[in-house]
Amino acid sequence: MKIISTLFSFFILTITANSQQWKLTSAYSLGLMQQEMKENIQPAHSLQLGILYQLPQVKRLSLGLELGIGSYANKQIDQTFQFDNNTSAVVPVNYTSNVFNANLQGRLNLVDETKFVVTPYINAKAGLYNFFSSIYIEDPDDPLSCRALEHESIINDKTLYWSAGGGLQIDLGYFSKKKKKNSVVLDLGANVIRGGTIDYINTKDLVEVQTNNPMSKPVSVDFINASTQSIHEHTVAQLYSSPLRMLEIRAGVVINLNR
Asked: Which residues pair with 237 in a beta bridge?
């Protein structure tokens, strides 16, 4: 993570000094979960930002760095917690589950982009994917009920991944007399994402988080009884582990800084 952040900062400084051959990329990414992950969590919606350097010797080849941040769940579930004195309370539990990725990427245009309005390309990436979740448990209305000692519980896991795919670049300058050729292009693409096993919260079945499931691990939070001051645990989510499998569909723009 630190190495990629350092490289990103280096690229920014280099662009400031010399804008020739550099491209900025920005895209909306829809991550469709595949295989086992598809059964447990919703699609991930992300914003991707990147930098590409067009090699002077091989102008159809660009290398660079990309960062992305997004979310696959943000919801509130009213959970019923059973206490030691045979009482219960309905407590709102807020779930926020996010993703982050950082990668080194290479893109090869299949034709000379300066000679065509539509440029097909293929690309490959390798980097780090991060899934992390926050759980905020509100205090119950009854002052004598149990309340959470930790209002926020973080589930955080990372894995290395690779990605391959392709897409089309459409020159927007072709449709406007005021814009230079290939200064801004529409970028449409798709990639398959494959990575190692990663932990995440099941966001498709949160209403039954306190039930036992042999395919998952319980995520518990400490509660304190307001009347007896005894500390005990309640399950607030189920943690799943699956290989990272995703189909990414992207739509964005590429800005050529040397145009």
From this structure: 219
